[in-house]
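Form 12-C: Joint structure prediction
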Amino acid sequence: MKQSLFKIVKNEKLTENVFKMTLSGDTSEIKTPGQFVNIKLEGLFLRRPISVHDCYDDTLVIIYKTVGKGTEMMSHMNSGALDLLTGLGNGYDTSISGKRPLLIGGGVGVPPLYLLAKKLVSEGKDVSVILGFNTSDEVFCEDEFKALSNDVRVTTVDGTYGTRGFVTDAFDGIDYTYFYTCGPEPMLKAVYKATETSGQFSFEERMGCGFGACMGCSCKTVTGYKRICKDGPVLKKEEILWEK
Amino acid sequence: MGKMSVDLCGITLDNPVIPASGTFGYGYEFAKLYDINMLGTFSFKGTTAMPRFGNPTPRIAECTSGMINSVGLQNPGIDNVISEELPKLRKVFSKPVMANVCGFSVDEYVEICRKLNDAGGIGWYEINVSCPNVHGGGMSFGVCASEAAKVTKSVKEVSKRPVIIKLSPNVTDITEIAKACENAGADGISLINTMLGMRIDLKTKKPVIANVMGGFSGPAVFPVALRMVYQVSKAVKIPVVGMGGVSSAEDVIEMMLAGATAVEIGTANLIEPFACRDIIKELPSVMGKYGINELKDIIGGCR
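Section 2 - Result
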């Protein structure tokens, strides 16, 4: 983990309430796709954990949805600097993906899968992608994934774009060796049931510190108690216990 | 003794800064960030007889200048702490550590202290009779003078180390509880634990915290904590460890002026992981600014 200042380079609106912020700073601690950063915002007490969408050289890209005060405040920032804790969380393990990993993202669960896709492709793997949204206006990142994969499928619940339905309605004909997923919990549960191989799930929880000190985001797993921020946010399919 | 050193129940601290229980784990996570031997000591995660998962999530809520937590004493249990956590702690921390002890019965506090007596490297027992996040134990001992005295007396009978009782601010008169603990043989008092608080999500109209209420902490509680440290240090003769919203070297000095012999820092560690390191580094210059030569001279110095 590292604490440092990042300069805001760009902040673009992708959809009605989803924004893409490009930052510049010391990215040396960001080592694995699926990790997150914890952002201090003026006037708010707790830091805001946001997953890493992309990272190269000294550039960090995050994609976030305005869901409360913090993200709302961020959506208006176009310059200045942010105090970040970087290198948080375990991230996805790509070493066990096999040759044809499937990536399944829903809504703002899509962003962390992008850096993961880049890494898997760089390892010579043949990646399939399913991106799920509610409606056509909410679709983002499709082209970025298409640049990495010949098999990118988009679903919308209302059928206004791509396949009508949920991500689990778009599995047809994909011969995958492993899967990686991130999205809202009902989607994760559906993916858990619909998938036939092992895989990795990225979870979300309200956090205190974000680096394993406060036990604010604990969950029960098959292998004992885990902290979403430190032992997660990525858990393997075999260790998940669905509680709620 | 250095200019920042203080004596806490017969043990010298190089400086009065002590990361508070529940914000510093068993130390080794922070040891990856900086050399934690620079601390006065630290109070490790509240430990019960049996392992505990704690409360359901969400356990955390944002507040103005503070936060609410309802972790509920998640910990691996005393046997695991002694066999697993303390050996890891010892590799990164060479000073006496403060052991935070929690219980759901008088016997549980006694059992934990007995087991800790045989463990090395511990300086003090901080007896938590003030956790607001568990039922049928914890705070119920700390809101009643006779119950707090009963825990104190029983623990003192077995303890081989100084016993510091950690008090709750959620009481009518904290000085009464402090005096009862002193009379029962306590070697020190630490205060304040968190204040019982609550938030409601306007969208769902439900409590943000799964357990409905939780412990409020952070800079917002500092004036209340300071006031209670002032009152308690006037009411008892034993040393007082002050805590509650301390986030700067200035806050440390203010707590000591109010009567604190040492100062615990909790929530600040969660937002600024280097908070304690930075406060210790800044103390000498802030002391200089206010004409303080030795920190121990200012304890209770507010007139």
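Section 3 - Comments
Chain B touches chain A through 33 residues (CB under 8 Å). Chain B has one domain: 6-298.
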